[in-house]
Amino acid sequence: MDRTESQMLIIFGASGDLTARKLIPALYNLHCGGHLPKNFLVLGVSRSPLSDKDFRNKVALESSYLEDENQKGNSDHLSNFSEKLFYHDIGNSYEDSYESLAERVKGLNSEFKTAYNFIFYLSTPPNIYEVIAKNLSEQGLTQQKKGWKRMIVEKPFGYDLASAKELNNSLHKYFNEEQIFRIDHYLGKETVQNLLVTRFANSIFEPLWNRNYIQHVEITNAESVGVEKRGGYYDSSGALRDMFQNHLLQIVSLVVMEPPIGAKAEEIRNEKVKALKSLRILTDHKSLNENTIRGQYLSADINGDKVKGYREEDGVNPDSTTETYVAIKFFVDNWRWKDVPFYVRTAKRMPTKVTEIVIHFKPPHHRIFTDSGMFNKDNKLIIRIQPDEGILIKFGVKVPGQGFKVERANLDFYYDSLAETNLMAAYERLLLDAMQGDATLYARADEVEAAWEFVDPILNFWKTSKDSMIYGYSAGVWGPQNADDLLEGDNTWRNPGSNLADDPGFCVIK
Ligand SMILES: NC(=O)C1=CN([C@@H]2O[C@H](COP(=O)(O)OP(=O)(O)OC[C@H]3O[C@@H](n4cnc5c(N)ncnc54)[C@H](OP(=O)(O)O)[C@@H]3O)[C@@H](O)[C@H]2O)C=CC1
Ligand SMILES: O=C1O[C@H](COP(=O)(O)O)[C@@H](O)[C@H](O)[C@H]1O
């Protein structure tokens, strides 16, 4: 609380989905939790002709979350919060009319004593980020003589490596890198951050965290939903750009990185960049063909409900070759990870919603218990990011009785067992960090570019190679069958259920 100075949050694209569904509820929760400074206000900016009152009504009405809160009897909180919301109509385009915006910002700043500390949140399509930044600069709103100025930008950070560089360069014309906060909401998830703590606050994992003990690493991000109302956007993006390039490579970087010298933003981000740069880029035709699998969901009946195939979704081209499933095998070229395969997949319309990291340990070098059945290669550390957030270790125990029969047992920790802990939603945590000037959980320009360097050749290969197939999979299954061929030996994907302790092969269709 003390660290959060008086400030104004100016949201561009305030009439949009993200503002109503994520930003306003996050700010409301921060307000209820007493995390917002006394002198604080939100100025929503977009082209829709709304008054302050309309905007207050719109965000409260559109956000079912806030409605629920109102019904729960928190109307005092809600009306106090509402009074902090203002709106400015930018006119017909985001190209000009910034004089009146500047006047409004200065007027509100004096009235509410926000100390010239401004955060500009760009929640518009990215093609207008530069013009907004330029206009803010021309109006003197980015000057840091009085107060600080920060900018939060939403993904996508580019469409490929070239456009990501272009976007970074254009923002750098008006803002220093230290002022730019690129949001990746996976970094705001408590359990993603806990990866750092698990690895670097304990002495029991790190000695094993390398090629000597780890056989392979598996990361799954599965969603049971399809593209919902975002078919138009998704069809020009696909799973590789939408999830893999950003959220999943962020997770990979936290698994792969070396211990940082400290926990400051730059110390952690330097190590993450190094980790991303050590991913072996798939360059030749053979490795691209053998190590990447893409798929697209087909219509199916799930529990009696007919679910649309991807090509039938609103806003999607009926001949679309956009992938809704991607699985990639790759290696990390450094001392720690030499020859350890990483298998990473993300998809829509899977049997359940789950994100987890599985560290598969090597079996014991010398097996003395021959009666150990299934257990031989079953030492796993499972870090469950969502749902059922927690950590589970699978290890072998002796079955009571004669002989040395070994059975699998679980050692587990569940976040919800910390009864007093109310997990902050990702956007709450990230907004609060930006308000306090802490960029640790935001992506730096070079991080984003390093991730694109890995992804670009895959995109090009899919676009240009005749050999690159897109496989259909029925909605509600774990993707195309041949994704299993990616895994070496007799390894299989751990197709997890919605509970952390569920065993592979067992899944609940939700
Ligand atoms: N929604 C989500 O869950 C997520 C969104 N994002 C990113 O956040 C940003 C905003 O997303 P979201 O709120 O969903 O988008 P919406 O299309 O719902 O809202 C964008 C807002 O930007 C304004 N806008 C300005 N120019 C245009 C234009 N050419 N076309 C459409 N809108 C325009 C619109 O307001 P007006 O017309 O009133 O000016 C609109 O309200 C995007 O960059 C998106 O990629 C990222 C992750 C998740
Ligand atoms: O960024 C995105 O993330 C969501 C999934 O987020 P989660 O927190 O629910 O796991 C995904 O549905 C969306 O397509 C993507 O743009």
TrEMBL record:
Binding site for substrate: 185, 189, 223, 242, 348, 353
Residue ranges of domain Glucose-6-phosphate dehydrogenase C-terminal in the record: 196-493
Catalytic reaction(s) noted: D-glucose 6-phosphate + NADP(+) = 6-phospho-D-glucono-1,5-lactone + NADPH + H(+)
Highest taxon in the source lineage: Bacteria
EC primary class: oxidoreductase
Active site: 247 (proton acceptor)
Gene3D superfamilies linked: Dihydrodipicolinate Reductase, domain 2, NAD(P)-binding Rossmann-like Domain
GO BP terms, alphabetized: glucose metabolic process; pentose-phosphate shunt, oxidative branch
Keywords for the protein's UniProt record, in alphabetical order: Carbohydrate metabolism, Glucose metabolism, NADP, Oxidoreductase
Protein family (similarity comment): Belongs to the glucose-6-phosphate dehydrogenase family.
Stated name of the protein: Glucose-6-phosphate 1-dehydrogenase
